[in-house]
Specification:
Strand content of chain B: under 5%
CATH superfamily of chain B: MetI-like
Shape of chain B: flat
Number of strands of chain A: 20
Distance between the termini of chain A: 26 Å
Helix content of chain B: over 70%
Radius of gyration of chain B: 26 Å
Structural class of chain B: mainly alpha
Largest sheet of chain A: 6 strands, mixed
Oligomer: heterodimer
CATH topology of the largest domain in chain A: Rossmann fold
CATH topology of chain B: MetI-like fold
């Protein structure tokens, strides 16, 4: 997975208690009848950030975005943009623009008219409009398509028109609803980087809604993982991936092996967890704060497990199993290993050499990992 | 083998031809043929005979086939102001009825299209419901409402708003009410079909880009519902031009319209040729309207 942290939102304003948030949600709740779509969410987003709301469909991420756009008003809570309370400001007066999932391009206008629409609405002088539209179209590489009807464009071109139309108004925050969802995989990858480049150049704060974790990882300075109307965890892509705070987050981002167990040794520098699922103990190289008898899980990413046919030298964090399934994906292979307890463990291994030591189905292997690899989650 | 294939191919072509031919046959039998008969009669002249006009094609005694095209009916229509006035009046009534119907029908169609799925079906049913009663009965119901001792006057008098009954029946007002009322479903249904397909996100996008709700309506919803507006207009304008029943029952003697004159010429005057000529001229006016409509529609689907 590609991440591009550190490129945007210079420094880490979210770790600075004095930093002024650019977008702030204060205890925002949205109910549709009996259904609570967004449940008491508080969130701070900083200037020039690319914040991704990531979650499965129905988790409330789109409702949150629509509340920022002004298309839904919160049942409770306040929304602030650049220090101003915009909770009751209608969409046409908010300093934000939205890029809709369906792009929502006006079919009765050509590319240029679509992009100029918002500027005309602001009654800017004609010359200014012409100049800004031309510059924007150049920036998204659609200069030659200015006079084309929207219906004559490809999916990727439409996406860029939608982006240009929203950005040309120079919003304080650009809201993007599944910006790459309608593009095919190759185009999506390329567009991700174009989007980052554009954001870098214009310095606009982006709030992206997506269900695609790879997209979130690539675009985001920070990710907010949403679950049933709440933000389960917010952090940089690396934080979310390496230090998930719950089974939900660990499982949602990438894949993970979870071993349920209980604490048998609790030291400030390390802990030892006895897991019946593993049939042994797991040494975790960091201390945790948890009640002694509470249930907990050790989360272990598949790529952090080393697989070998011979016994590894270490004594901790080793187990054995039978390879049950092998999936060859080209760049890497996925192995499903059945432990003596019946637990299936997922292991990935990059295919660095063309003819690496073959691990075949039904073969016996040792699995081992570093004490720094597992993460303990308590919920 | 090859011959067999060719033959099979041949039958396929002919069966396809048959499928295409059926609607053509229908149109020829029930549209083109009657039209040609009307056209023929329009070039004839009234006579005391059965049928009541002079034949167009005559065998003369010297074995000569004579075709007589009598243009007097058409010329008469230009000679007498009555026809021209009635014609202009018909177009005016049709035009104003169309405008009123759109003004009332558009908001209704919009409301239905934006209503929830369940409310939508009920509302649509209510729009179509009047169709289950004969149109004549519905117009008579309006007579009952409008007449001097009708429901409207009685109510207003009993409430003390007026002391003398208002003249409502046999006024242009009553006629427009009748026409708009009768044709409203024809406006609502195509507009609804159009607005229902409209992507509401476009309206949201317009608002996002700085449009107040009415501006978004004017710049996005209205232009995108153009096809629906054109279809609805045609469905009112064309039949309203030839409308006969409503002007007669509600409009009174002063509402001289083509449909009425046609009726009088045909039934009271028994002058089939003049009636046919009127029908042909009406067709000549309305067909270009229809073609303009089709053109706008096809252009609309390009974009």
């Amino acid at each position: 997975m590609v991440t591009a942290i550190g490129r945007r939102a210079a420094g880490e304003p979210w770790n600075d208690p004095d930093a002024r948030p650019y977008v702030e949600l204060r205890r925002v709740t949205k109910k549709f009848g009996e259904f609570t779509a967004v449940d008491d969410v508080s969130l701070k987003i900083y200037e020039r950030e690319v914040f991704c709301l990531l979650g499965a469909s129905g988790c409330g991420k789109t409702t949150l975005l629509r509340m920022l756009g002004g298309f839904e008003s919160p049942t409770a809570g306040r929304i602030l943009i650049d220090g101003e309370d915009v909770t009751d400001v209608p969409p046409y007066e908010r300093p934000v623009n939205m890029m809709f999932q369906s792009y929502a391009l006006f079919p009765h206008m050509n590319v240029e008219q679509n992009v100029a629409f918002g500027l005309k609405q602001d009654r800017l002088p004609k010359a200014v409009i012409r100049e800004r539209v031309a510059a924007m179209l150049e920036m998204v590489q659609l200069g030659e398509y200015a006079k084309r009807k929207v219906g004559q464009l490809s999916g990727g071109q439409r996406q860029r028109v939608a982006l240009a139309r929203a950005l040309v108004k120079r919003p304080k925050v650009l809201l993007l609803d599944e910006p790459l969802g309608a593009l095919d995989k190759k185009l999506r990858e390329r567009t991700q980087f174009e989007l980052i480049g554009l954001q870098d150049k214009l310095g606009v704060t982006f709030l992206v809604v997506t269900h695609d974790q790879e997209e979130a990882m690539t675009l985001a300075s920070r990710i907010g993982v949403m679950d049933r109307g709440t933000i389960a965890q917010a952090g940089t892509p690396a934080e979310i991936y390496e230090f998930p705070n719950s089974r939900f987050v660990a499982d949602f981002i990438g894949s993970v092996n979870l071993f349920e167990g209980r604490l048998v040794e609790d030291e400030p520098e390390f802990v030892r967890i006895d897991s019946a699922e593993l049939g042994g103990t797991i040494l975790v190289g960091h201390g945790i704060s948890s009640a002694p008898e509470a249930a907990l899980w050790a989360a272990l990413r598949p790529e952090k497990i080393t697989m070998s046919r011979g016994a590894p030298p270490q004594t901790d964090n080793v187990t054995r199993g039978i390879v049950q399934d092998v999936a060859y994906l080209g760049d890497l292979s996925i192995y499903v290993v059945r432990l003596a307890t019946g637990k299936l463990v997922r292991v990935t291994r990059p295919n660095t050499a063309r003819h690496a030591e073959p691990v075949e189905r039904d073969g016996e292997v040792y699995l081992s990992w570093d004490a720094a690899s597992p993460v303990v989650v308590t919920r | 083998m090859r011959r067999l294939l060719r033959r099979l191919e041949g039958t396929r072509v002919s069966s396809r031809g048959l499928v295409v031919a059926l609607p053509y046959l229908w149109l020829i039998a029930f549209f083109v043929a009657p039209f040609l008969i009307v056209l023929k009669i329009s070039f004839s002249h009234a006579a005391l005979a059965i049928p009541p006009y002079k034949p167009l094609v005559v065998w003369t005694s010297r074995s000569v086939l004579e075709i007589r095209l009598d243009l007097r009916n058409y010329l008469a229509m230009f000679a007498h102001r009555l026809y021209g006035d009635a014609f202009l009046n018909s177009l005016k009534v049709a035009f104003l009825s169309t405008v009123f119907s759109l003004a009332i029908g558009y908001p209704m169609a919009y409301g239905i299209a934006r209503a929830g799925a369940r409310a939508r079906n009920i509302l649509l049913l209510l729009v179509v419901l009047p169709f289950w009663t004969s149109q004549l009965l519905r117009i008579y119901a309006w007579v009952g409402l409008f007449k001097a001792n009708g429901l409207i006057n009685e109510t207003l008098i009993s409430l003390g708003v007026i002391h003398q009954p208002l003249t409502l029946l046999f006024t242009p007002f009553a006629m427009y009410v009748g026409i708009v009322y009768s044709y409203l479903p024809y406006v609502i249904l195509p507009l609804y079909a159009n607005l229902e397909k409209l992507d509401w996100q476009l309206v949201e996008a317009a608002q996002d880009l700085g449009c107040r709700p009415w501006q978004a309506f004017y710049k996005v919803t209205l232009p995108l519902s153009r096809n629906g507006i054109v279809a609805a207009s045609m469905l009112v304008f064309i039949p309203a031009t030839g409308e006969f029943v409503i002007p007669t029952l509600l409009g009174g003697p002063n509402s001289l319209m083509m449909g009425r004159i046609l009726w009088d010429e045909f039934f009271s005057n028994r002058d089939w040729p003049v009636a046919s000529a009127i029908a042909i001229v009406m067709l000549l006016v309305l067909v270009p309207c229809m073609m303009a409509y089709l053109r706008i529609q096809s252009r609309g689907s390009d974009s």
